[in-house]
Amino acid sequence: MLKALVIDPGKCTGCKQCELACSLRQEGVFNIAKSRIRVFDFHEEARFIPYTCTQCDEAWCQQACPVNAITTTDDGVKVVHDNLCVGCKVCTIACPFGTVNYNASTGKVIKCNLCDGDPACAEACPTEAIIYSDVEQAGYDRMKDWAQKTDAGAQATT
Amino acid sequence: MAWTKKILRVDLTKGTCTDEPLNMDWADKYLGQRGLASKYLVEEIDPKCDPLGPDNKIIYATGPLTGTCASTGGRYSVVTKGALTGAIACSNSGGFFGAEMKFAGYDMIIVEGVSKKPVYLTVFDDQAELHDASEIWGTSVWNTDDWVKTKHQDPMIRVATIGISGEQGVLYACVVNDKHRAAGRSGVGAVMGSKNLKAIGIRGTGGVMVEDPKTFMQVTTEKKAVLAENAVTGQGLPAYGTQVLMNVINEAGALPTRNAREVQFDGAHSISAEAMVEPSGKDGKPNLLTNAACFGCTIACGRISKINEEHYTVANKPEYWHASGGLEYEAAWALGAATGVDDLDALTYANFICNEQGIDPISFGATVGAAMELYGEGTITSKDTGGLALEFGSAEALTTATELTGKAEGFGKELGLGSARLTAKYGKPELAMTVKGQEFPAYDPRGVQGMGLTYATSNRGACHLRSYTVASEIMGIPEKTDPHVTDGKAGLVKAFQDATSAVDSSGLCVFTTFAWTLDDFSPQIDAACEGDWSVDKLAEVGERVWNLERQFNLAAGFTAEDDMLPQRLLKDAAKTGPAEGLTSGLDKMLPEYYEIRGWTKEGVPTNETVSRLAL
Fold first, then answer.
1. Which residues of A touch B96 (CB under 8 A)?
2. Which of A27, A32, B114, B150 is least surrounded by Cβ atoms within 10 Å, i.e. has the fewest?
């Protein structure tokens, strides 16, 4: 079973507990500037959006890396190896989502590695806006919600 | 650990920014934030100084738990001699500014002197710098916040700023951070403005560490569960915000209405939390769009609201059609019940303007209420108000008054004096619903007796957040007491005051105390900070802070005579509701309170008390 972070912005309150937990797990201190997950506050639209690496199958960060410092685990997670990373930042340019970032204090890039299968952000989220679950079931709850609203079910039309 | 152990001292007269170590002996006695900053202020300024003069200082202070993952760990306080009161002021704010100060490496920023020209301060990690503020002077909080981020090309800068009101000396001007979080009371924004300091922009990329991370994670997780399982912090506040109180307090007959002439407001439901979630406007969306959290808060009581686009206040102003910080209970009360206005959109608009220009909605709304009474009895006329028909219940009068006061224009300049000075100016000081010059908030002491003693003895002038006995007297937290009796209230007030002083010194939010007692705070602070932070030590810190503030006020010239409520609350009985026939029994509580505090009959801490608390 392939698991992923499933994010529901509608439940996010913008508290940043995910960023705090991420930074403590990854950096050993509370430092949201170094968090691999970010919560964006679209104040005037009343929306909070947590955002992080989606662990692309065809990961451009990985393909762009000139020294093969980004590898894929058995669970499909793209992991940066600090001993190989030369800090060239090409991956940060290649990533279309901006979720790979350069850490000036170490000279390496940082990205979400799903905390080796136990993501701190999901554990810390007080509202279940971030959960770690089976990717194939990620849409299940949303489908159920929509199914409940309709009598006939979704109809494809041509 | 937890503290960064570093202070930034900014001398505006000389234009210098200097780092200095935090006094850790004081940190051990005063913890942080309110307590520790008060200690610095008391040591550094003459208590008799002019709050708006060059000798006052203004301190922006975090607590040791600010910037950690403890729930609500994002608080900071602004400590100074208050412009509105002349008493020691400590205004607490959430949002994200406080945590950013810690990430930049500072426990507090002490600002002294006066700049010749308007300036703003940036703190980017350990680089602190003053800049010319001529491009933002004369502009709003909202404009300044955006401008600083754009100017320095970093959207992650956190900004605390004053609006036009603070520049112009509106005596209850706030310091607003993150656009709608405010160090709201006592005129700390006016002090900032008097120094020609427009704003502080902070960005930090460093970390905050705690003494024992493993224990800290364990206890903070446990305590978050306590908040989540509590009916108030887990359900009531996230769903309804503090506004959950509007109907409750009205039904208790403790909602000061129309300048406290009445204790119940017939329009309460229209301005309540329940009304905020009802569909309204042409799009059928409710006033409240979502709740929102401050940094690290797992309660998330913040309101994000939108004004109905067809409402008269914004119909021709699309710049106000976006979502922003909505009505909290105190603001809804002051802008609504205190003025008799029951138009939710008008109140939301007034609240937006309070945020945009940085004025305290409590003192502002209460001042409008007092002005409406002056107007109604003919003491002031439309000649005095520049044509403004200040009639109780007039939404138009309220929203126009808010616009004027936010910019200190026209009659807004007089409203900006606050109710005590305004009513005195027109020979009716008895119409000011104030203690030590500060307007009291949304609980009528005739219906909640403990709040009378709370207001009378609050060191920063009338305030509910110094000892929120409403929790006990109305909500039964931690145990139910009878709101209509004075017996036992002296001890209750002291216990709340001491515990709250400790909480306000920690970096955490006082709203957690609906679910947490010092027993819950102690293990979190103890795991974060070096030293032993037992419940007893925290209670002692709280009591020490309270007495320190009291000593400052006594040295500033306050006496026991200032521990006094407006005569209306003492003489005119509640006309309706469960408290009908009651006045405040302050005279029955105050002597006992002095005694329990270890103070003389004149309200002065005895030598024994001073030495017991190592003051």
1. 16
2. B150
What is the rounded average pLDDT of the residues A115-135? 95
Cα→Cα distances B146→A80, B135, B318, Å:
35, 12, 18
DSSP secondary structure string for all residues of B33-85: HHHHHHHHHHHHS-TTS-TTSTT--EEEEE-TTTTSSSTTTT-EEEEEE-TTT
Q: Which residues of chain B register pLDDT less than 70?
A: none
Burial class of residue B610 (count of CB atoms within 10 Å of its CB; 0-12, 13-18, 19+) = middle
Q: Enter the ipTM.
A: 0.95
Among 3.40.1390.30, 1.10.3660.10, 3.30.1490.120, 1.10.569.10, name the CATH number for the domain at B239-251+257-432: 1.10.569.10
Closest Cα in chain B, distance from residue A2 (Å): 28
DSSP line for B156-201: T-EEEE--HHHHTT-TTBPEEETTTEEE-STTHHHHHHHTTEEEEE
B293 contacts in chain A (CB < 8 Å): 13-16
Q: Which residue has the tokens 């209670």?
A: B539
In chain B, which residue's Cα lies nearest the Cα of A128? B298
Tell me whether residue A37 is in a domain.
Answer: yes
pLDDT in tens, A41-90: 998 999 999 999 999 999 999 999 999 999 999 999 999 999 999 999 99
Tell which CATH classification among 3.40.50.2000, 2.60.120.280, 3.40.50.300, 3.60.9.10 matches the domain B6-203: 3.60.9.10
Does the distance separating the beta carbons of A14 and B293 come in below 8 Å? yes
Distance of CA B537 to the CA centre of its chain: 26
* A49 vs B: CB within 8 A: no
pLDDT for position A155: 63
Residue B552 is encoded by which pair of tokens? 């400052």
Residue A127 touches partner B, C-beta closer than 8 Å: yes
Chain B hits for A43, CB-CB cut-off 8 Å, are 179, 304, 322-324
Per-residue CA distances from B192 to B175, B181, B264 (Å): 8, 16, 37
